[in-house]
Amino acid sequence: MNNKLIDDFGACQGSALKNVIDLTEEELSSLQSLATLCQQSGKTDEAIQIISLLIAIDPYQPKWWRNMAKIQQRAGQHILAFLAFEMLSIFEERNEFDLQLEMHSLRMLGMDDLSKQLTQFVGSSHRSESCQ
After folding, report:
1. Domain 22-130 sits in which CATH superfamily?
2. What pTM, to 2 d.p., does this model score?
């Protein structure tokens, strides 16, 4: 495979859909607001579809993953909420509020041990970072 092809492939990843759809940050924010309104009015499926579109457009945006996790959790889809929280943790350090929500989903799935391990892991990684 030649290097030009590899470089072109790398350039296409991530924001390729964003470039094709060509939405401004303001338009993306409006879609986010629409998803929030849908969720608040009980239209969870519509909210999930909008957030899914935002993730497809820009999968590296932590706020989309956070919103997906919260919407899935409110819908009782705890495994999907957990997975979205895990995706969020790839792009952004866990905060205490998100950690509590993620642990709630794990407990709802009957994974109390994993919830405790996650707490210990996050606590130990924060302690080791503060010691450096």
Report:
1. Tetratricopeptide repeat domain (1.25.40.10)
2. 0.75
